[in-house]
């Protein structure tokens, strides 16, 4: 029973930090700062999916979380390469 409360509490805390991160991205002006905060939110979402998988005892959610993490990683690399090329052209 205590472990269930801790898992639920961890999920709630993770949701609160996701909301705080989203609110922090609203006040940012730079695109790169928003990309980093989006990456942070996506990473926390992966952790939330892992917790949900553990609570619900559904291993298929782990596959979803891994695929979501890979998409997040590839998107971060693509955006980084785009801005790297954009800054080189601007010089």
From TrEMBL:
The chain crosses the membrane at residues 6-24, 36-55, 61-83. One of its GO terms (cellular component) is plasma membrane. It comes from the Bacteria. GO terms for molecular function: sodium:proton antiporter activity. Its main location: membrane. It is found in: Cell membrane. Belongs to the CPA3 antiporters (TC 2.A.63) subunit F family. This is pH regulation protein F. It comes from Caldanaerobacter subterraneus.
